[in-house]
Amino acid sequence: MESSSFLLLMSCRLLLAFTPIPLTNDLQRDHQLSSPLTSYSRLKEGLWFYQHDVDPYAGGVFRHSPLLLSLFSAVLPPVPVVWALSDMVGAWALVRIWRARQRVNKGPSSRDSLVAAAYLLNPYLLLPSLALSTSTFENAFVLLALMLASDGRRSPALLALAFSTHLSVSTFLLVLPVLMLLVTSSVSQLASPHPFTGSTWTAYQYAGEFAAYWLVLFGAASVMAGSGWGWVHETWGASLTLPDLTPNPGLWWYFFTEMFDHFRPFFLMVFSVHLVIYILPICIKFQHDALYASFLLVGILGIFKAYLSLADPGLFLSMFVLFPEVYPYLRYPIVTTLLHTHASLLLPIFHALWVTEGRGNANFYYAASLVMGVAGGAGVVDACFAGLRIAMGDIAQGERGKWEVVQE
Amino acid sequence: MNHPVPTTTNHGLKEPQKLCFETARTRRLVLGSYWTIIILAFPFWWNLTSIERIALPSYRVRAQLDRKPVFPVSVRLDASSFQGSAPTLGRALHEILAQTAQASPRWRNLDIQVGVSEHAGDQSEGPNVYSVVLGNHTAVRHPRQVVVSQEDASSTLRLGNILSSLLAPEVTSMQAQRIAQYAKRYRLAFTLLNENAASPHLVNSWDIQTALAGKFFRFIYHVFPIISRLDVLHNFTVESQVQYHAPLAFEPLQFAVANNTLHGLTPEDLTVFINSAEWTLSSSVSNDPVLHFVLFIPSPAQQPLHILDAHGLPTRQNAFLLPQWGGIFILNRHARAATMTHLTAADLVPVFSAFANQLSALLGVPPLPDGMMSEESSLLSDWQLDALLRYRTSENMLGSQQTLYSIIKLVDQIENMPVDQKVRGDVHDALTALGEAYRSAMGSPATALRWSSEALSLASHAFFNPGMLALLYFPAEHKYAVYTPLFASVSVPLIVALGREVYGWRRERQVVRSG
Amino acid sequence: MGRKTAAFVLSLFVAPVISSTSNSSDSKPRFSIAGERYHEDLIIQPLRDGRVISTFTFTTLLEGVSPRDPWELETPAQHYTLFPLTLGQILREYSITELHLSLNAGKWNYDNWGYPEDPSVSTGAELWAWMADGGPMSIDERWTSLRNALAGLFCASLGSLDSRRTSSPYSAFPLSSVSSLKISFQYALRHATLPSEHVCTENLTPFLKLLPCKSHTGLARLLNPQRLFDADWHGLGVHVLSTDRGLELRLGVQAVLDPVRESGGKRRDWSFQSLFDRSIDAACPVSSRSTARVVIPDDDGYRLSPELLLGDKSMAIYDLTSQVPLDISMLWPNEHPFPFPPTHTGPLAPLSIKRALHGFSQTHGVLSVALSNNEYGDITIGYLETLPALVTLWMHTIKAEVRGTQRDDLISDISYHPSLLQSNGRYGPSVLQVRLTVPAKSALRLSIDITKTFLKYTEHPPDAMRGWDLPPAVLFPVLIDGPVKYMVNDSFVDGIGTRDRHRTIPHRMYTPTLLVDLPTPDFSMPYNVIILSCTLVTLIFGSIFNLLTRKWAIVKVEE
């Protein structure tokens, strides 16, 4: 079945959960690896509140979904092995997506281990997972939803999607491409685009089913949270109103730290609408390949999400492995790679200089987060370009250098 | 710039025009979806950045400016007293009274009618009816009646003067300056100040409650009776305290008269008499204005302390009034009484009658004309009270008109000033109260005063609404600096693409039509 | 449990007092003013390290007066003779049942100075008030107005004791007397501290004006601001209590003066003249009792002057009414120089407290409190921590250690209220209250992780780099053999529980305050950030927009 290297990777990840890692506390507190919405210490605090009869959603400390609260208070303790398992599920899902895209139904494919490694060994994903950030679960659910949708398993896919929107409200961006993926095929159509073939009516029905799952989960979460609708404001509302200004590699926190009070609500609206504005254009342009559309939207989230952690661009980068066909058409992969390297070096250094050492100031870290934004932007723009450019194919052998494909 | 070339050449590429995502329809859908989201966001933009400015009823406020209240006053000459001369006397009096009222800016709103009545003193005719009867001496009498002696009644001019000084008492500008600004509620703060507690002259307590009421004695000029008579105009709260160390901020003048050393306060000293750094005379616990009444007992070294006139000579006065602030009484203890540590109500009679006088002056109670007596049991005659009511009413109405107009002007001038529902509500209510005041001025002066004071307090409440200050200093340039970086650069590609698409679409249609 | 529900019904033995303001002037000895009494007292306590604690207490009693019923609307005339009108009006206007205001500078050293006479020794300003609920004004409105009125009266920045600092820790700050209260009311507590407030002359001047004799005669004559504010520790206290006898106002001044420092480290002799640069010339004529008391030190060799008339071995008492002018002095003629410290004995208080913030990062830290029990029996106390929202406590990290071993069993009755969003858009303080048992002759170390909040740039004060003061934690007596509950002051004397082996502390104790520095943004950046961030957003948005909307074309590359 699975290749031995794939199994080796998986077991290494599992082993890592039981290995004592130095500086665990520092990892858990690191602002790059987990945001206030995903931080492990906040999860533990919420559990403490829950066990001591204090409303977990009071005081702006706990911003996780009630689903996680009930999972870790009733079913499992929050131990590292859960994160390892979640990573393994994510890696497995990514491999299955890859296979579905390549129409490999049975037997290991040669790229399996590479795909799994792209997920398990991606430092942007591994470190948050070691920091026990709940973004690991969010990513696993996104991949699970995409995998199930690629396999055409409607109800599980929609349920996984509902879970992932519950854990992180910004995943709503992916609802439309996942629905499209369900009614079309996951096989790469980038090179031979064709108009949307799926049945719109079926998509509507699926949307209805998704809404039903979502509402059931919403009801369940409200029951678990216990105290009315307060949790909605604390969890999802936080992505819209940004009450906690803890630094992260994203663009929101410093912008709203420095924003004038009068314009704050307006710009919060602009930043949220800005995320939404990408859904329709990308889905329309990439109607022939919904998986690629979801990939691009994951990339958008990895730049512009309200509470960004490295796990968000990490998912986008890992998903690159699914689309080897576009590699030849990337314009500046080296630049993007260098930008990411640059950003991932600058972020921890400037963060330490400002917050830990107290020698730098906030602008240092802001500059690093801008570099991160440029890196993310370069990746998404290039992926978008390559995804369209591939449709035109290659220039004939003898004509190289005489022709160029451009946009007017 | 390179131009697309005909695709006949064999370069091995697929023709972009034939790709499904390159159709005009897809492109327009993409562009349309961008614009749809933006247009959908516009209401949010409006909602989140606009300043709440509710329209104020400025037309009504401007219309109010020219309105003046009219106080009808009807004087009835007693037919049985004046016999046949009454009608002619009435006409002459009407002329005199109308002239004096017109001449005084304060009483211009009076509409005085003089008539003859068979039943003088009949109050059934209304609250603004005053009667004149003949009697042995000139005096005012309850209800709203003046008795005129034969002598005073003999001259029309004299009678006219008596009536006009009752109905429209002239107030000198100095008296007018003393009058405290109108307030619904005053706090009367009585303070006993010992200049030096270490002295044997120390007075450690006073019988203030009895002294205020003045109920032990037949002296009528005491504080509580005045307060209770004025309660149609104001509410009063009374408080008192004793202070044992209240030094003056200056050294009084010392001089000798007939082997006695006297101390004196010059008129300049009086203006700086209050040592507000050392004396805590009242707390700031409420916003009601305070009228202070200070009984000052000089230290033995400074006794006796006299008030000097402009020439530096001691006067017999031992009380003085600080305009709009309150009154001060200087109590020099006689050697006999010096060992007493308690001031009884009897000791306080001169003090509190002085305080009562000062209170009347501060509140603008018009004095009775010289030589006029009062037959009434109460301290203030109906004539005085009515004149005060009319004066305060027109003052309040003018004040609220001006305040409302200021609000309108301010809101017009400053475009960023937020105006919320509360301000609008207050302005509306003030206008309504003002209207009611105009209406009731025709009838009862007391009702008119209540409405006018309501209008004034609502108008000032609206004027001082803290919400209106919120964005006072918020320049427009600031807005551009905040909006431009994002919106200028985002809108350029959006608009250019839209323009190009519209242009392309129109050309297509032309081609279709011509083809 | 929210602040609203902190009000509770007093179901205890309550005898309502009917207000009767003016008694007829019955003659009392020496001095009598109908319905009002005033007396003053000074305690001077020389310490073993040569310092001198002087505690002034000025008490005015308004006999037979009970706090205003909050439902009572019309305001009757108020006549005061000895009681300060300005304060009386405030108490009446907001119907305050009990009020405590203290303005202190310095850190009270319990180990060397023992318990203070007035337990309110919190650094900075502390204000707490009990109010009967009801009437047209809500408790919070009255609290706000009370703060503003007192701020005006004492020239202190009490206005900043707003909802961000206000809590209702009624176990630690109980009502002093329940017997004078009306059973029909619910009483509510509001408490706030402002550790950064600095007490100075501008607070003392209005304070002295509340005294009938101001600082002209009587004990208050000694309150020389220059000497007082030079002391190692000094504080002003205003306490209003409703007792069975009436409304009692206690104005207090405490100061820890150091004659050894004055003398250049040579002598510990002191006198009124040397301590305050003044002596008492005359008694306050309206005071019914004026005493100055000196606590006799344990060691011999001192000489007290004037000669002792009253008192016993532990206390010398001087009556100002018969002994003016008065300048008490205490000399140690045989000490050349003062042996500092004379003998080393243990701490004077049963508990020694240390509180610190560990961790060098600007975001994380550990709040650690070390409580050393100096007694031979376990001590159980309540511990109250009220932190403004700029610091977040991580309750799941709370732990107690004794001699390096974790002893979480010593923590009980944890009650934690996270900081809540108030209606005015601000976060209230988080309040942690636990019951701690400190084992005999050992040190308990309580530690909790904290993080510091990142604030908007508009929320930082102008001197953002100075840092923020955290209020002191409070240790308070608890009922032993029972959960932390409401209790009456002073009813916890030693050994209520099981004999001497298990006790609590007699009075509240305050820990030192802390300073936290928050990470700051760059205050000059708003426009730069708007431009840079927006440019990046536009760049990415524009690139993707162009990719999606522009036509593709194949062009021939010109040579």
From TrEMBL, chain A:
Residues 1-17 form the signal peptide. It is a multi-pass membrane protein. One of its GO terms (cellular component) is GPI-anchor transamidase complex. Its main location: endoplasmic reticulum. The keyword Signal applies. This is PIG-U-domain-containing protein. Pathway: Glycolipid biosynthesis; glycosylphosphatidylinositol-anchor biosynthesis. Belongs to the PIGU family. It is found in: Endoplasmic reticulum membrane. It comes from Paxillus rubicundulus Ve08.2h10. One of its GO terms (biological process) is GPI anchor biosynthetic process.
From TrEMBL, chain B:
Pfam families: PIG-S. Pathway: Glycolipid biosynthesis; glycosylphosphatidylinositol-anchor biosynthesis. The chain crosses the membrane at residues 29-48. It comes from the Eukaryota. Keywords: Endoplasmic reticulum, Glycoprotein, GPI-anchor biosynthesis, Membrane, Transmembrane, Transmembrane helix. InterPro entries: PtdIno-glycan_biosynth_class_S. The keyword Zinc does not apply. It is found in: Endoplasmic reticulum membrane. The keyword Glycoprotein applies. GO terms for cellular component: GPI-anchor transamidase complex. GO terms for biological process: attachment of GPI anchor to protein; GPI anchor biosynthetic process. It is a multi-pass membrane protein. Belongs to the PIGS family. PANTHER family: GPI TRANSAMIDASE COMPONENT PIG-S (PTHR21072). This is GPI transamidase component PIG-S. It comes from Paxillus rubicundulus Ve08.2h10.
TrEMBL record, chain C:
Keywords: Membrane, Signal, Transmembrane, Transmembrane helix. The chain crosses the membrane at residues 527-548. It holds the Pfam family Gpi16. GO terms for biological process: attachment of GPI anchor to protein. It comes from the Eukaryota. One of its GO terms (cellular component) is GPI-anchor transamidase complex. Residues 1-19 form the signal peptide. This is GPI transamidase component PIG-T. It comes from Paxillus rubicundulus Ve08.2h10.
